[in-house]
Design brief:
Order of helices and strands: HHHHHHHHHHHHHHHHHHHHHH
Distance between the termini: 45 Å
Shape: globular
């Protein structure tokens, strides 16, 4: 069976409204039966692929993020950053971006970052006269920093799929993540200048800055412990997630009651179950197409269609942009990466570098309609129409694509932090 009817069947199932996990798993099981292979190998293969220590980091990072969200640390981060940059043109928007970047360093989740900072920043920005479409676009895009600035749940899953070092992936995400923060900051400043809000105000008194910074110090300390521990080799990503949960619980003492704690646990469990259900379905589908040698066939087709690695990567980015309109981020990762992996090796593309590029394209998928999760999170927080959120994302989406292009032109943006970390 060729790839065209299989992909057509998958798109038909997804278009019919069947959940992604069941569409992938059902089609994969049907393909295995079609080829005469016993369904028992599905259970055996899933157990073998999921029996991986690194996967424990996913629910733990989610739990850490949700505990901090319920404890209201977003307000402390926002107040601290605003006290330092609030007098700049577009200062409150800049403070929002920096808050997203700081929370991304302890989160690993795009949705958690958008929800944590958005809950505080949306009403503040709207009250200060910022257009609602710009505010919602800013928060939807700022949330995506949660999966680019390490730690990152998609990077963990990518590392397991490709058998690459998760720590190298974390290190590789630092440069592009910081560049994206800078570009988002420039967008906020230029937007303020364009709207005639370019006057630099008086900075906050040092006493106010000190007080706000002290309130945010525990969260900054948590981020510092995770980052330094990971990059010094003191503990693995999974151990970092467990330490993060323990420290988050210490920070939350006195700030979170039993009801909100259990809500954080339940939300983490629900998200973990959703992610792993998609992983199970995608693993079944990947197992079927791999046994049918479709990845190798598609890699051969791509190599015949494109004569060089840059053209191949450009084609992949266009493909991911299109798929991002229809597929959830984790599903994209689990469907596309196994198919492209043989072609990556054939073209000599570094899998770690490609992993960072892939995460950036996933970021784009999270803020493009109709299935961009961050759009719905911010829509719910702001209480506005989805169209209003979509109108505000375009300058930030272009910034993400510019970072992807910069990575291609300057690979050292990814490679240098990895070399330093080693």
């Amino acid at each position: 069976m060729s790839a065209i009817p299989i992909l057509g069947g998958l798109l038909l199932l997804l278009g019919s409204g069947i959940p992604v996990a069941f569409a992938l798993g059902g089609l994969g099981l049907a393909l295995l039966v079609y080829t005469g292979l016993p369904p028992l190998i599905v259970a055996q293969g899933l157990f073998a692929s999921m029996d991986n220590f690194i996967y424990l980091a996913v629910p733990l990072f989610l739990l850490m993020s949700n505990i901090l969200l319920k404890a209201g640390v977003g307000r402390d981060l926002f107040a601290a950053t605003q006290s330092w940059v609030g007098h700049w043109p577009g200062g409150m928007a800049v403070a929002t971006i920096l808050s997203c970047g700081l929370f991304a360093a302890i989160s690993g989740s795009s949705v958690a970052t958008a929800a944590t900072i958005g809950t505080v920043a949306v009403p503040e920005l709207v009250a200060r006269g910022y257009p609602r479409s710009f505010v919602t676009g800013l928060l939807a895009a700022g949330g995506t920093l949660g999966i680019l600035i390490p730690p990152s749940i998609p990077m963990i899953i990518y590392g397991v799929i490709t058998e690459q070092s998760v720590l190298d992936l974390f290190l590789g995400g630092i440069g592009p993540g910081l560049l994206l923060v800078v570009l988002f900051t420039l967008v906020a400043i230029l937007h303020a200048l364009w709207r005639g809000q370019g006057t630099i105000k008086s900075p906050a008194p040092f006493r106010q800055r000190l007080q706000a910074s002290l309130r945010a110090l525990p969260v900054a300390g948590l981020a510092l412990v995770i980052v330094l521990g990971l990059y010094s080799g003191a503990f693995t990503p999974t151990e970092a997630s467990a330490i993060g949960v323990a420290l988050a619980l210490l920070i939350a003492i006195g700030r979170i009651d039993r009801k909100r704690f259990f809500a954080a646990v339940m939300e983490s469990m629900t998200t973990t179950a959703t992610i792993f259900t998609i992983v199970f379905g995608a693993k079944t589908f990947a197992m079927a197409v791999t046994l049918m040698q479709l990845p190798q066939d598609m890699a051969s087709v791509l190599m015949n269609m494109t004569s060089s690695a840059p053209l191949f990567l450009l084609a992949v980015c266009i493909l991911l942009l299109v798929l991002g309109f229809f597929l959830e981020a984790v599903a994209m990762l689990l469907i596309v990466v196994p198919v492209l992996l043989p072609a990556l090796y054939a073209f000599g593309v570094d899998p770690v570098w490609f992993g960072i590029l892939f995460v950036i394209m996933i970021e784009c998928a999270m803020i493009t309609p109709p299935v961009g999760l961050n759009l719905f999170v911010i829509q719910s927080i702001a209480g506005c129409d989805l169209q209003e959120v979509v109108r505000g994302i375009w300058p930030f989406l272009l910034s993400m694509l510019l970072v992807a292009a910069t990575m291609g032109a300057v690979p050292e943006l990814v490679n240098l932090p990895i070399a330093w970390g080693r």
